[in-house]
Amino acid sequence: MVVSPRKAGHAAFLPEEFVVPTLVAGPRFQIRPITVHDVVKDYGAVIGSLDRLAGRFGPEWGWPDREFTFEQALIDVAWLQKEGQLRRSFSYVVTTPDGERQLGRIHVAPSDMRGVDAVVVFWVRADEENSALEKELEEFVREWVTTAWPFEVVRFPGRDADA
C-alpha cells in the first residue's frame, strides 16, 4: 500500500539533522522545492497533462480533478510547500535550467509499507511523455533519492512493478 502525499501522516519522517536538498540539477533540468510562486507554471503543467496525470494517480489520490481550478492549484501548491516546511513530505518542481518552463514534479513521502522508507512519485508534462528528458529524469531521481536522502528502501509507484 502506498500513501498518497495528501494522506501522509502528521509526523516528520526524516531525522532532524538531515539537511533537505534545496537545489539539484541534471544536464537539462533543475529541481527545487515547490513554492506558491510556482503556481502559474505548475497550473499550466497540470492542466496540459490532466489525462496523463489522472491515469497515473487514479481516483484513490483524488488528483487532479477534471475541474481543477487555479484557486485549487494555489491551495494545492501552498499545501505542498507547508508539508515540506513541516518535514512531513517534500515536493519539488522540475524546470528547465533557466527556470522558465516547468517540466514536472517530484514528491518524496513516507510509506506505510513495512520495510519501505519512502515513496517517490514524479511526473513530466504530457508533451515530455516518453521523451529522452523523462528517461534522464527517472535515472537522475532514482540515483538522487538513494544517495542524497537517508533512505535504504524506496518505492516508485507507477514506475516499479512491485510498488
Arrangement of strands in the largest sheet: 1-2-3-4-5-6
Strand content: 15-25%
Give me the Rg, rounded: 15 Å
Give the termini distance in whole angstroms: 8 Å
CATH-defined superfamily: Gcn5-related N-acetyltransferase (GNAT)
| Strand segment tally | 6
Q: What is the CATH C level class, in words?
A: Alpha Beta
How would you describe the shape? globular
Q: Could you name the key traits of this structure?
A:
30% helix; six-stranded mixed sheet; 4 helices; alpha+beta; Aminopeptidase; 20% strand
Map the helices and strands:
Elements: E1 24-26, E2 29-33, H1 39-47, H2 50-57, H3 70-85, E3 90-95, E4 102-110, E5 118-124, H4 132-147, E6 154-155
Parallel strand pairs: 5-6
Antiparallel strand pairs: 1-2, 2-3, 3-4, 4-5
Organism: Actinomadura rubrisoli
Keywords: Transferase
Protein name: GNAT family N-acetyltransferase
Provide a brief overview of the structure.
Helix content is 30%, strand content 20%.
Folded structure, characterized:
This protein has 163 residues and is of the alpha+beta class. The chain has a single domain, classed as 3-Layer(aba) Sandwich (Aminopeptidase), CATH 3.40.630.30. 30% of the residues lie in helices and 20% in strands. The chain contains four helices and six strands, in the order E-E-H-H-H-E-E-E-H-E. It has helices at residues 39-47, 50-57, 70-85, 132-147; strands at residues 24-26, 29-33, 90-95, 102-110, 118-124, 154-155. Strands 1-2-3-4-5-6 form a six-stranded mixed sheet, with helices on both faces. Strand 5, helix 4 and strand 6 (154-155) form a beta-alpha-beta unit. The chain is globular. The protein starts with 23 loop residues before the first strand and ends in an 8-residue tail after the last strand. One of its GO terms (molecular function) is transferase activity. This is GNAT family N-acetyltransferase.
